[in-house]
Design a protein that fits this description.
By secondary structure, the chain is mostly helical. Helix content is 81%, strand content 0%. The protein contains 13 helices and no strands. Helix 2 packs across helix 11.
Length: 297
């Protein structure tokens, strides 16, 4: 059951990261996603250094060992941050988080991991809920918002990039979760994997800083970047819980955690004033039933 509570923590913080990332993404700032990378990398790097200084065993070789998963996760996140400039959170999050279904399918087909009948049903509910949310949003949500807002945001809602970014995130993040299932506890322990990932993100933050500030001569205004820093804190906390949940029960935890888009939709309605339809609320309830079943098994 430990994996279940860790999964809930990851859901809470990663949905918060979604919210603050969207708040910090500005359509008119083409460097916004790189600034997000800087913020997340700095917070994660600080957390990694803290863990090392407080006695967590770590070798720099662990960075190389865990690099396949780190690379896939970081790439997917950069694409996700870029996509938030073109698409609303209530559209992006469900599509992105269909990655849990990709990971579960790979674990089932390649690693031959098993689930009970009830767990399989619960995973199906969660994955179907995530998929249904993306379909409903694509079919109805965008049209309703465009009608209400006029043509000003049309390029962000219906452009090719608006759909491409979350789809790429879904596929690449699913591959990253599958890489986790291969590496955790067999090649590298959760603590070392988490530190390796955070230090790799710190390196990417340094690269992004050089690109944005030194090469492109952009100015970073810290008060205006507060949502990005909040997103970075939530992302780091969610990642810490996630890596242990995946290490304990990858095939069930992956699709469960991917349902954090359900909470992202709630936050988008409460704080960003993005409207949800009755059908969306029904699908959210269906996914919640799946989560409860997973927790009881």
């Amino acid at each position: 059951m430990t994996w279940f509570f860790l999964s809930l923590i990851a859901i809470l913080f990663w949905s918060g990261s979604d919210l603050f990332s969207k708040m910090g993404s500005k359509p008119d700032d083409k460097y916004s996603h790189w600034k997000m990378v800087i913020a997340v990398g700095l917070v994660m790097g600080a957390h990694a250094v803290f863990l090392i200084l407080t006695g967590t065993p770590f070798r720099f070789a662990d960075i190389i060992i865990y690099l396949p998963a780190s690379f896939l996760y970081i790439l997917s996140m950069i694409l996700g941050y870029a996509g938030l400039r073109y698409i609303e959170l209530s559209v992006s999050s469900p599509i992105c988080n269909s990655s849990g279904a990709v990971a579960a399918l790979l674990c089932f087909l390649i690693l031959h991991e098993t689930m009970s009948g009830l767990q399989f049903f619960a995973v199906a509910l969660v994955c179907a809920g995530v998929f249904a949310l993306s379909v409903l949003e694509k079919r109805y949500g965008s049209a309703q918002r465009l009608q209400a807002e006029g043509d000003a945001n049309r390029k962000y809602t219906r452009s090719f990039l608006a759909v491409l970014f979350p789809i790429l995130y879904c596929i690449i993040d699913g591959l990253g979760t599958f890489a986790d299932a291969l590496l955790l506890d067999t090649v590298i322990a959760e603590e070392q994997a988490n530190i390796a990932y955070e230090l790799t993100f710190l390196f990417m933050a340094a690269v992004a800083f050089v690109y944005v500030v030194i090469i492109k001569r952009q100015t970073l205004h810290l008060p205006g970047e507060a949502p990005k820093l909040a997103a970075a804190l939530c992302e780091t906390a969610g990642q810490f819980a996630y890596v242990f949940a995946i290490g304990a029960n990858a095939i069930v935890a992956a699709p469960m955690i991917s349902s954090y888009c359900v909470m992202s939709l709630v936050w988008s309605r409460l704080f960003l004033k993005e409207k949800l339809s009755k059908a969306q609320y029904a699908v959210i309830a269906m996914a919640a039933v799946g989560i409860v079943i997973l927790g009881m098994e």
